[in-house]
């Protein structure tokens, strides 16, 4: 077909899009997986504990697909005493909102012994992952990688010879059930800092590979007979370019990654191409993913440390370490130099410099120039009858027993709070000080958004309960990407929108708000469904730090009855 014969430039452009969609669909495949989720014994950091695994694996199996493919996962719950769901982080679930994997929002939790079919299309290439989204099952180890390659015949806008996948997480020796009880207790019992950081599910507790550089050996850490916690060495050939796909599924920790003696060039963020820029290290927050290019142009007769350290919190957790090992050098030969030093945990200027260096690649979709609705979300730490909570505009989110998708679709108005949460907060609120009235309320109301409108969200950080304390919060939006228009210090005010980047803002699905600051986002509400928007720190969401966006639910097609076979919707399914 000759698109030029179609006439005007706009029609030619439409013709090209149609042909590209046909091309993708013709080469697309349906990829089937049968998974069983269960507790099992494991030793992620060389200390045996119960972990949550899939088909006997921790982390779960990596899904690899191509853009346009359909993924089908038959998920069987073998946990015996608790429900389970899996969220496909970064996948927009266009026309399949019931497959988003959010308990009480898009579906009922899968009961013990039951099987639920997740069927959805991965429409865009990128670095993604999946994780549990019920209770705090992500903290228990329910996660894995989801990599979407370019469709056949398509190419990335950068070259590389090979790639590695790095899934980063944090690990506690205390069970998630004990953590949950502590968070919901009065007096409050915080979960504490993680015992270990994991790279692809492997870490070393109370053992530093780098303890004695010249005399150290990996056997110091007692990996023999316990290879499942031994670090996965990145074996490389000299003078090649490698793509490192990096994703963070941490429950709490913000992280920094560095490779001794090697620069990295950032080329992808949350499945979207960005203008390439070089860094010595990168900060990555929970819910984010990146691709970086690494050139192996150093001395091939040496090995080099790969280090992961904690940012944004006073670290009580040792660095996670592994090796970049050149092919001419045995992996058992440890470097004689110190690993990269993680920037000081509260050096936020370092964090902001990296975050503000991310711009969309030329040719990426641009945001609408104006918005239809602005929602300003104030993040505060509060108390509710003596219990510590997180709240948004003084409402701490509590999820209903009936999934929103079903209750809105079938008009079950008594299934959740019908009063919408506020679009703003009291302008007299001083974000730099603890609130004079620290009490909050609970609610399950939703923000009803008109389909196909443009929404600005301003995330406003504030002082927590303790004086001079404001924490980093990475916020993740389900069902959409958003443009990150800008960041600011202090309270967002009229006129700050003049600083917005409308030329080349990056498209992301997760964005951070820094202490005592604000972050401005813009998205188009063009995906019918009910979508969570929440802090990706697991205990913060558990304590109420999130909101619900609903849009065009009347346009949602037939919902699988298994998704809604609970609560008030159980009797509404045919």
Label this structure with key terms.
single chain; 574 residues; mainly beta; Immunoglobulin-like; 3 domains; six-stranded mixed sheet; 32 strands; disordered N terminus; repeat; L-ascorbate oxidase
Task: Break the fold down into its secondary structure elements and pairings.
Blueprint: H1 9-27, E1 30-42, E2 49-54, E3 63-66, E4 70-77, E5 86-89, E6 115-121, E7 126-132, E8 143-149, E9 162-171, H2 176-183, E10 196-199, E11 234-236, E12 241-248, E13 254-259, E14 264-269, E15 272-279, E16 281-284, E17 289-295, E18 303-311, E19 320-326, H3 348-355, E20 373-384, E21 387-392, E22 395-397, H4 404-409, E23 441-443, E24 447-448, E25 454-460, E26 473-477, E27 482-489, E28 507-508, E29 510-513, E30 517-524, E31 529-535, H5 538-542, E32 546-551
Parallel strand pairs: 1-4, 3-8, 9-12, 11-19, 20-25, 22-23, 24-32
Antiparallel strand pairs: 1-2, 4-6, 5-7, 7-8, 9-10, 12-17, 13-16, 13-18, 14-15, 14-17, 18-19, 20-21, 25-30, 26-29, 26-31, 27-28, 27-30, 31-32
Pathway: Cofactor degradation; L-ascorbate degradation
Subcellular location: Secreted
Keywords: Copper, Disulfide bond, Glycoprotein, Metal-binding, Oxidoreductase, Repeat, Secreted, Signal
């Amino acid at each position: 077909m000759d698109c030029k014969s179609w006439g005007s430039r706009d029609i030619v452009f439409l013709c090209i899009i149609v042909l590209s969609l046909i091309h993708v669909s013709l080469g697309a495949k349906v990829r089937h997986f049968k998974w069983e989720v269960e507790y099992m014994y494991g030793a992620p950091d060389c200390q045996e504990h119960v972990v949550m695994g899939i088909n006997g694996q921790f982390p779960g199996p990596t899904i690899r697909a191509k853009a346009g493919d359909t993924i089908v996962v038959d998920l069987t719950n073998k946990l015996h005493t608790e429900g389970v769901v899996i969220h496909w982080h970064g996948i927009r679930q266009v026309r399949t909102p019931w497959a988003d994997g959010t308990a009480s929002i898009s579906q009922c939790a899968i009961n013990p012994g039951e099987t639920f079919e997740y069927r959805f299309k991965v429409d865009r290439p990128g670095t993604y992952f999946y994780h549990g989204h019920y209770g705090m099952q992500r903290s228990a180890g329910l996660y894995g990688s989801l990599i979407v390659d370019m469709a056949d015949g398509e190419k990335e806008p950068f070259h590389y010879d090979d790639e590695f996948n790095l899934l980063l997480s944090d690990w506690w020796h205390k069970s998630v059930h004990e953590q949950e009880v502590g968070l919901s207790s009065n007096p409050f019992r915080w979960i504490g800092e993680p015992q270990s950081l994991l790279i692809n599910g492997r870490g070393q507790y109370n053992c530093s590979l780098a303890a004695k550089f010249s005399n150290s050996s990996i056997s110091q850490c007692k990996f023999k007979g316990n290879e499942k916690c031994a670090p996965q060495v990145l074996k490389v050939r000299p003078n090649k370019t490698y793509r490192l796909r990096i994703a963070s599924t941490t429950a709490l920790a913000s992280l920094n990654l560095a490779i001794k003696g090697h620069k990295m060039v950032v080329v992808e963020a949350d499945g979207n191409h960005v203008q390439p820029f070089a860094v010595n290290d990168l900060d990555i927050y929970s819910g984010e993913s990146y691709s970086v290019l690494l050139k192996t142009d150093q001395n091939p007769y040496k090995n080099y440390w790969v280090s992961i350290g904690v940012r944004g919190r006073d670290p009580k957790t040792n660095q996670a370490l592994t090796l970049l090992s050149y092919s001419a050098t045995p992996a058992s030969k440890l470097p004689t130099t110190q690993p990269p030093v993680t920037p000081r945990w509260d050096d936020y200027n370092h964090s902001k410099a990296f975050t503000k260096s991310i711009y969309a690649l030329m040719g990426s979709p641009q945001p609408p120039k104006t918005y239809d609705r602005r929602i300003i979300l104030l993040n505060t730490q509060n108390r509710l009858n003596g219990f510590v909570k997180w709240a948004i505009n003084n409402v701490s989110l509590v999820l209903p027993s009936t999934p929103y998708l079903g209750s809105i679709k079938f008009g079950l108005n008594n299934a959740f709070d019908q009063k919408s949460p506020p679009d703003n907060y009291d302008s007299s609120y001083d974000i730099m000080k603890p609130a004079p009235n620290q009490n909050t309320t609970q609610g399950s109301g939703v923000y009803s958004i008109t389909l196909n409108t443009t929404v600005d969200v301003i995330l406003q950080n504030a002082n927590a309960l303790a004086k001079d304390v404001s924490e980093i919060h990475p916020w993740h939006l389900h069902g959409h990407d958003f443009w990150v228009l800008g960041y600011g210090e202090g309270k967002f005010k009229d006129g700050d929108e003049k600083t917005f980047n409308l030329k080349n803002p990056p498209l992301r699905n997760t964005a951070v708000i820094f202490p005592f600051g604000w972050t401005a986002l813009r998205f188009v509400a063009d995906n019918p469904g009910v979508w969570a928007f929440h802090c990706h720190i697991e205990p913060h969401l558990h304590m109420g730090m999130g909101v619900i966006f609903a849009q065009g639910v009347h346009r949602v097609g037939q919902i699988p009855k298994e998704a809604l076979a609970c609560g008030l919707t159980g009797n509404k399914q045919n």
